[in-house]
Design a protein that fits this description.
It comes from Sphingobacterium gobiense. Keywords: DNA-binding. By secondary structure, the protein is mostly helical. Helices cover 59% and strands 0% of the residues.
Length: 75
């Protein structure tokens, strides 16, 4: 399961409802939720956040807040 899948599961989100509201296919929602090699596009994240009444920035931070900049010492 992906970070998006875990986020949606914690919020008890119905993926069929998200697909209907966003215009994304249910297959695409499932791929983004289950396939760790899938890549979430910014417009998909925005639509999903709006469909579940979440702040897109909150969703972005939940999914990608673990990322760190490379320090100059590491270069």
């Amino acid at each position: 399961m992906t970070a998006l899948g875990e986020f949606l599961a914690k919020r008890s989100v119905n993926k069929s409802m998200v697909a209907r509201r966003t215009g994304l296919s249910k297959a695409r929602i499932n791929e983004l939720s289950l396939n760790t090699s899938s890549h979430l596009r910014a417009e998909e994240l925005y639509l999903i956040a709006k469909a579940i009444d979440a702040d897109p920035c909150e969703v972005l931070n939940k999914l990608y807040g673990h990322l760190q900049l490379v320090s100059e010492e590491d270069q």
